[in-house]
Amino acid sequence: MEVAEQPWFAWRGEKGRLDPLAEGREHAVYSDRQLVVTRTSTPPGLLFAGEIDLTNSDAVAKSLASEFPIFGDAHLDVGRLSFCDISGIRALVEAAEALGAGRRLLLHGLPGQLQTVMRVTGWSDLPSLVLCDCQVVQP
Questions:
Q1: Is 44 helix (H, G, I), strand (E, B) or coil?
Q2: Contact 37/48 with Cβ under 8 angstroms?
Q3: pTM (2 decimals)?
Q4: pLDDT of res. 22
Q5: Which CATH class is domain 2-132?
Q6: How far is the C-alpha of 50 from the C-alpha of 108, rounded, in Å?
Q7: Alpha carbon separation from 95 to 6, 63, 138 (Å, rounded)
Q8: Which residues contact 103 (CB under 8 A, 6 or more apart)?
Q9: Can you say whether residue 4 is alpha, beta or left, with left for phi > 0 and alpha for psi between -120 and 50 degrees?
Q10: What are the structural domain ranges in the chain?
């Protein structure tokens, strides 16, 4: 996925400091000490890099709810996640369920362990959630 060309407003975690993960990322939507969420342009969507856990899963949910286009599928590149606990997975599932009829959340680059969790729980069978095996262009 390619990072969006237009700079956007970014909000930060409780500490109010930009994490070193986000340095030089002018297209960051959210950042804290362990996660950076960045807009992508091709395809339009979001890229998550770092770790998602209980401390930032609410921020993940807010990022997902505010950034998806009104129509069409929503693309989320999660290939740079190094960790995601059940609260983060649940935020992804809830975002997919909230998209509405005919829309899907396409997860690009989902790490193998997270794919296993999604399949065991049955979440990968949701019509609004697609685990993509396609290759994406990383920024």
A1: strand
A2: yes
A3: 0.76
A4: 44
A5: alpha beta
A6: 15
A7: 24, 10, 23
A8: 71, 72, 73, 74, 128
A9: beta
A10: 2-132
